[in-house]
Every structure is written in structure tokens, then in C-alpha cells.
Amino acid sequence: MGKNLAEKILQRHSPEILRGPGQIIPCRVSLVLANDITAPLSIDSFRKMGAKKVFDPGKIALVCDHFTPNKDIASAEQVKKVRLFAREMGITHYYEGGTSGVEHALLPELGLVGPGDIVVGADSHTCTYGGLGAFATGMGSTDIAAAMALGETWFKVPESIKVRITGELGPYITAKDLILNLIGRIKVDGALYKALEFSGPVLDRLDAEARMTMANMAIEAGAKAGLFPVDVITLDYCRTHGRNDLNTLQPDHDAAYCLLMDMDVSGMPPQVACPHLPDNVKAVDELKEIRVDQVVLGSCTNGRISDLRQAAQIIREHKVDKGVRFIVLPATPKIYAQALEEGLLEIFMRAGAIIGPPTCGPCLGGHMGILAGGEKCLATTNRNFKGRMGSLDSEVYLGSPYVAAATAVAGRIIHPERI
Amino acid sequence: MMQEQKTSMHFQGRAHKVGDHVDTDAIIPARYLVTTDPLELGRHCMSGLKQDWIKRINRGDILVGGKNFGCGSSREHAPIAILGAGISVVIAHSFARIFYRNGFNMGLVLLEVGDRVKAINSLDQLEVRALDGEIINHSTGETIRSLPVPEFMANILARGGLINYVREKVG
User: Fold this and answer.
1) Interface predicted TM-score (ipTM)
2) Where does chain A hold its CATH 3.30.499.10 domain(s)?
3) Any chain A CB within 8 A of the CB of B58?
4) B97–A222: do the CB atoms touch at under 8 Å?
5) What is the pLDDT of residues A95-143, one digit of tens each?
6) Which of A412, A17, A399 is nearest to A183 (CA)?
7) Residue from the list A37, A49, A122 with its beta carbon closest to the beta carbon of B163
8) Burial state string for A52-61 with b = 16 or more CB within 10 A and e = fewer than 16
9) Which residue in the set A38, A78, A126 is minimally distant from B75, CB to CB?
10) What's the CATH superfamily of A5-263?
């Protein structure tokens, strides 16, 4: 029996012969990640484990991005703790201030993650790197502390669901719409403990950034990983981001899957996940007169340059509705600079948007855009759990950058073609 | 609290039920993630579900969730907040993957029972024999078997969590 993508990558990093799903195997890791919220706990656990040094100071990334720029004294103390640890351990990839950005946008941009890697991160959206053909998954801080100390972790080999994507992408249909549609179909626990593996002709139409948007939300279906094959699109992206990966990676033809799904995207309208779960997905036109108080464009899901371009295309020569705060957060300093050069920031400014620094901020209700009771927000982020962005009585809707920009202009959730 | 579990793995307490897909933002909202102190986190346990949820909890009570308990973020603060609130055992229909692993690492006892979770009502008096995977509902007289814990994870729990497990390896 051949191997699917998850099995192929896991086997490469394990000394044990992989027999199939359910088996627990040790794996060497390529990169270990934590952020300003999760690293402090990892550091505590690391000390309690009696560890004195990390397994490889060049294979750990500590990215301060959640509550940064530090929102209060307590979060500043947490960042200080991470900074001192990074210094003590001689960690190469420590990011704070003007070098830092949203971790899952930053690490691919720096070429720190790529095809065939195993990446573990103390952040559930670590699965983003599956867009580049890495087996990447989120874990808790103590698992990450163990990986920092030992350079290895354990995995239960997951079953895989193969999603074959076919058809023609319509105008304004993005990776975000595809993944929301999929989550709406399989539900928030539809891929629990499993890997999602994407395939089909539409992949040729999805660039590396789009693939990362889709892999990013695999966790929203409960998945352990969301995996794309490695093809010329991946290798091109890696080459332009400082890596020299040469080999494609495809599943074997006789690989085993627990489920085969077909997804025909022809005629698919823009998708919106309604409160309070990412699987409560509707076509945008099904939503009638949902007025919003805030729109957020950014995050590890949709804060990349292609996302800013899409939103700018809609909002150009329009104004943000008077009742709306439109918050734009380019995910990394490099994306920010590029958006500046391309004139995108000027378009947003002239429209009346607020442009903020690279930060996870409002996505998790941290800062820089918190909702009051009764307020509604359309965000390009990944979660709309009750209270996620502020008050327990607020509501978050999830959509693409096109839908976000259209909503900012109209003041209510609408189809981008109506702007 | 980790020490108590390590020695006995036998618990008694009142059940407190919550629904399906209780996410980690509900268990501990992000605004409280500026500390790693279990007692401080425990004070805000489940405040993303209901503001004063914690007031109904007495030390030793047992949390009973529905499907996909602990979905969402990887924050280890979630199992820590539950432990900090004085809860040592969570029974659920099913658990989200990262939370499941975090729970064991922190020494929180997690028992997956599938549809049998319906045999527990809020405030039922439960007895949990974690090593045997047995839950006795003294309010109804029923006994519920939990799905077996993978041997590898049982080993971690038997050592009181992942920290002790790794400590032996780092040595």
C-alpha cells in the first residue's frame, strides 16, 4: 500500500517503520514555534523539565505577535520573558518589534518552513504551512517545550481525508471561500484527529498564499494538518523566499484515505461563516441586511499581500461607510512595505480605513479592535466563536478580503459585485 | 492538584454539563492569557461561556462536555484554567485533538464516552475510576465505560504529566 502526503512526511522524520493510521511514532522536527502568549508557558515547562539548552538554537522560532505592540504591562512582561529566554538560549529566530509579524505569515516569508518539513508550533494555526507541503500542526506549550529540549515529538499517524477540488473559480471566489465552504460541509469536527489532503485541477489556480489560507483553517474542521502536494507553484514560492527546495512531493497513487470528497467550485458564490462557529456557513446573498460596526482585514488567514490587493481592488475610489471602523493589519513588515510601494495603503487611507501594525490583535480579542456588546464585525480572520473578538454579546462573521472590503463600503455584508 | 491525581486516579464529584463544541475561547478568553498562574486562570474558567460560571463550581466537581470539547486554539491555559478551578476530570462525548493532548500533558484526566454522555445530567453525583475507564453515576445507578486511553498517553498521565516524562529523558 502506498502512502498519502501525511504518511510520507512523517516517515521521512521517524526512525520507525510507519505501518498506518493509529500508530504512535516519534519524529524529528524541522522547526519549533511559539509566540508571546504560549512561549511563557513553554519556558516554565522547559525549566521544570530540567532542560538546560534547546536542541538547536537555529531551529526554534519565537515570534511576539499576539498582544504586540504590547497592550499592557502584563503582556510586556510576557514578551520580556520570551526575549530573555531567546537571548539566554542563543535562539536565532527571535522576532519582536519592527522585525516581527503574524507568525504564520512571517515564517514562510523568511523561508523558515517549507516542503517535507515537520513543524510544530504552540499555536493552532501552525497548520498553515501545509500550504507549502509541510506536515505542520499546533500543540500546547508543554509539548512544544519538550520539542525544544529534545528536537523530537510523538504523533499518532492520522487518517487522511482527500478533498478533490474541481470546476471553475468564479469572479471574487478565493481560497477563503473554498475552505469556508468545505468547513460548512464537513463541520467543525468533520476532520477531528485527521489530516485533510487537497488535490484536483483547481490547485493549479491557487498560488502559495491561497494554499496557506486554506491550510490555515484546516484546524477549524478539527484537522491535525491540511496538506497540499508540492508542485512547481510551491517550489517557485520557496525559491523566491530564500529556500532551495528542488523536489516535488505527491501522494502515491495507491495511498489510503478514510474518505474521498469531491468539491466542484463552479458557480460557488462568496461564502460567509455566521456566528458563532466557523461551520455556520452561508452564501453571502443569503444574508439580508446584516449591518456591521467593524471590518477587519488581516490575520494569519488573510493578511498577505494578495489579500490586501483584493480588498484594495474593491474599495478603490469608494469610502468606508460612516458607521464602520475598517481596520487593516498587514501581516508582516514586508507585506506592509510592499503595500505601501504598490499604493494599496494610500487606497485604504483615502477610503477612510485605519491601518494598524502587523499583529494578531483583534482576531483573538486581544487588542486593536475589540467589540462592545451588540456590535457586529465582518473579519477575514479564522474564528467566530462567541466572544472571540470582545463582548460575549458581540458577533463575528468570517469572509474573504473581497467581501470584507465590500462590507466596509456598504456598511452591511454584501456580495463584492454589488459595489 | 497534579499530585492528588497521580496518587489516586479515583474521583468523586458533582457533574456540570456544558454543550457541544465548547471552544478554548469559552474555557479561557484570550484577554486572560497575560498570566500563567493556574489559580488566576482558574478564576476565569468558562467565563467565555457565561461570565460567572465559576461561581457554581466547588473543588472536586466534574466537568461534562459534549462533542469536540476544547476545540479552537492550542492554548494550554485552557486545561490549566480547568485544573485551577479545582476540576480534575473532564468527561465528554469527544475531545478536540490539541486539547486532548494538552490535558494529558497537564495531568488533567479526560474520559471520552461518546453518546453515553447523555446518561449524565447536571448535578448528578459521579464516581470516576480513571484507570479502569469507569464512571459510576450514583444519581441514576448507571455505569459508563470510557473509550480506552492509548497506552503511550496513559504512561504520560501515570507520571503526572509530560514534564515528568521528559525530565527522565533529559536527565
Assistant:
1) 0.95
2) 5-263, 271-418
3) no
4) yes
5) 999 999 999 999 999 999 999 999 999 999 999 999 999 999 999 999 9
6) A399
7) A49
8) eebbeeebbb
9) A38
10) Aconitase, domain 3 (3.30.499.10)
